[in-house]
From TrEMBL:
Superkingdom of the organism of origin: Bacteria
Descriptive protein name: Release factor glutamine methyltransferase
Protein family: Belongs to the protein N5-glutamine methyltransferase family. PrmC subfamily.
MF-aspect GO terms: nucleic acid binding; peptide chain release factor N(5)-glutamine methyltransferase activity
Taxonomic source organism: Gluconacetobacter tumulisoli
Entry keywords, A to Z: Methyltransferase, S-adenosyl-L-methionine, Transferase
Domain Release factor glutamine methyltransferase N-terminal intervals: 15-82
Enzyme category, top tier: transferase
Binding, S-adenosyl-L-methionine: 128-132, 151, 180, 194
InterPro entries, alphabetized: DNA_methylase_N6_adenine_CS, HemK-like, N5-glutamine_MTase, PrmC_N, RF_methyltr_PrmC, SAM-dependent_MTases_sf, Small_mtfrase_dom
Function noted in UniProt: Methylates the class 1 translation termination release factors RF1/PrfA and RF2/PrfB on the glutamine residue of the universally conserved GGQ motif.
Gene: prmC
Length: 290
């Protein structure tokens, strides 16, 4: 390895430059930024600390290039580092479930807009909880609330439980490994779901970061992408409190289908809220007026 001194130390600049070039050759966007993030992860520092770093030893260099090779194969950075930010939380990630995305924060923003009184939310249900990001973000904002997260994947349920402990919210929630609504009784003030919603025929065209690394069962929404919504909207009337609100994440174009499914289940649409990119992302539902 070029630039090594007698003690096996090397200045970080050349190491970072080589990592950047490998990512650029793999066709990744922002190769220098991603290389810096991976080096900061390996050195257990932040980007500011990285600037002050004087040298990198041989062990750290090997770990860095191992991480670079994984990223060059389009493995998401959040799987390499093992964590990702969501809302105000830092959450553990794993390939058992999807990586929390900024677009999903739209659901938390919608909840805060429609339930400004923090005492108005006492119970939260998250169907297909994954990392637990929606459930835990809601509990972090509503200090009097308790919640339940449900996921059919055992690994995802265990991950959400670890994140509840990681965020200090474990005493206010429970995580269940079950098939969405089959093990749930009672009514909830808020119900979240970010279910699989990609039409099956579109999976092959997804970015390789998603297609090749994130779990297909958390992406595949059936032929038209609506399979999960059909099940969930039918279940909502028996799970939603009288004045409760359900907030579902949707994919591109699905804002045309969700109102129809909601009406069929006796629900009405309260709002369809766009994410920061202007794409309709959060559908808010409540019991229909009688």
């Amino acid at each position: 390895m070029k630039g090594l001194d007698m003690a096996g130390q090397q200045a970080p600049g050349p190491v970072l430059a080589e990592g950047t070039e490998r990512l650029r050759a793999a066709g990744l966007d922002n190769p220098r930024r991603e290389a810096r993030l991976l080096m900061a992860h390996v050195l257990q520092t932040d980007l500011a600390g990285l600037l002050a770093r004087q040298n990198v030893d041989m062990s750290a260099s090997r770990a860095f290039f191992d991480a670079i090779d994984r990223r060059a194969a389009h493995e998401p950075i959040a799987y390499i580092t093992g964590h990702a930010g969501f809302w105000s939380l830092d959450l553990e990630t794993s390939s058992t479930t999807l990586i929390p995305r900024p677009d999903s924060e739209t659901l938390i923003e919608a909840l805060l807009h429609h339930r400004r009184d923090r005492a108005s939310v006492r119970s939260v249900l998250d169907l297909g909880t994954g990392t637990g990001c929606l459930l835990l973000a809601a509990l972090s904002e509503y200090g009097d609330a308790w919640g339940v997260g449900v996921d059919i994947a055992p690994g995802a349920a265990r991950l959400a439980a670890r994140n509840a402990r990681r965020t200090g919210l474990a005493t206010r929630c429970a995580v269940m490994n079950a098939n969405w609504t089959s093990a749930i009784q009672g009514r909830f003030d808020v119900i979240f779901s970010n279910p699989p919603y990609i039409p099956h025929g579109d999976l092959a065209g997804l970015m390789p970061d998603v297609r090749d690394h994130e779990p297909a069962r958390a992406l595949d929404g059936g032929v038209d992408g609506l399979d999960a919504y059909r099940v969930l909207t039918e279940a909502l009337p028996s799970l939603l409190a009288h004045d409760g609100i359900a907030i579902f994440e949707i994919g591109i174009g699905q804002e045309r289908d969700m109102p129809r499914l909601a009406r069929q289940a006796g629900l009405e649409i309260l709002e369809i809220r766009a994410d920061l990119g202007g794409i309709p992302r959060a559908v808010l539902m409540q019991h229909g007026r009688r």
